[in-house]
Amino acid sequence: MIWHTADAKYERIEIGKDKQQNQEMAKLIDPYKSQLDAKMNIVIGELDVELVKERVESSIGNWFTDIMLDEANRISTTKVDFAVQNYGGVRSNSIAKGPITVRTVYEVMPFENMLVAVDLSGKDVLKLFDMIAEYGGWPISRGVKFDIKEGKAINVKIDGKDVDLDKTYRIALNDYVAEGGDNTSVFANAPIYEYNLLVRDAIINHIKRDTEEGIVQTARKEGRITKLD
To answer: Is the peptide bond before 186 cis (omega within 30 degrees of 0)?
Structure first.
C-alpha cells in the first residue's frame, strides 16, 4: 500500500528581534541543552592551523579525507587505496586554529553518513576523477594527484603511479556517495563494504587517538588537484 498526502496547509509566521523568548519552553529545554552542551564542548584535540574549505583543493578537505583513509585502513583487512568526500558533505567553511571540540566535528559533519568502501576498476577510477574534475574538485586523500583541464582529469597518479586500468582499487567514502548521491553513477554496480562506523565518529576517534599520542591536527594544500585552465 502506498500512502499519499491528502492535503496540506501552512501559515507563514514572521519571527523578528522583537519576539520574546517563551519562558515555559526555555525552562523545558534548558536541562537538555545543558546536558548536550556539556558533551559537545568537550575538547578532544588541538589544531595548529586554520583549515579552510575551497576548490579545487582545500586544507579542510585534505584533513577530512586523510582521516577517512586512515580509519578505513584501521578496520579493513584489504588495503584501501584512497578516500574521497563530496564537496557539499563538508559542512564547515573553516575550522579555527586551536582546540577541537566534539561540536567542531559535528559542525563539519552533521550528517549520519557511514564510512564505507567500494571497489572500482582502474577504468572507473578515471571516470570518477573526471566527474570530480567536472565538479571543480572534491576533497581527496593523500596519494592521489591529478590536473584538471577543460573539465577533465589528466596526469592522474595514485601513489606516484599511473592508474592501472586492469587493477581493482578500493576507495573509502561515505555511504551517501557510494549509493549514488551527488550523481555518482560510477558507483552504481560497485560492491559496498560496510564498517559500521559513522564518518563523524571515525573523525572523533582519530583525533582522540592522536591526542593520546601527543599528535596535533594539521593539514595544508599539497597540489593534489591543480586546475590548469
So the answer is: no
Residue type present at position 145:
K
Residue 76: which of 170, 188, 174, 157 has the closest Cα? 170
The one-character DSSP state at 193 is: E
pTM for this predicted structure = 0.87
CATH ID of 52-227, from 3.40.640.10, 3.90.780.10, 3.30.160.100, 3.30.1660.10: 3.90.780.10
Q: pLDDT by residue (tens digit) across 36-63?
A: 778 999 999 999 999 999 999 999 999 9
How would residue 11 be classed by pLDDT, with cut points 50, 70 and 90?
confident
Residue with cell 558507483: 187
CA distance 206 to 4: 44
Q: Determine the longest span between alpha carbons in the chain, in angstroms.
A: 65
Residue 2 CB-half CA count within 13 A: 1
Q: Which amino acid is at 193?
A: Y
Task: Sketch the domain layout of the chain as residue ranges.
Answer: 52-227
The full DSSP string for 67-108 is HHHHHHHHH-SS---EEB--GGG---SEE-SEEEEHHHHHHH
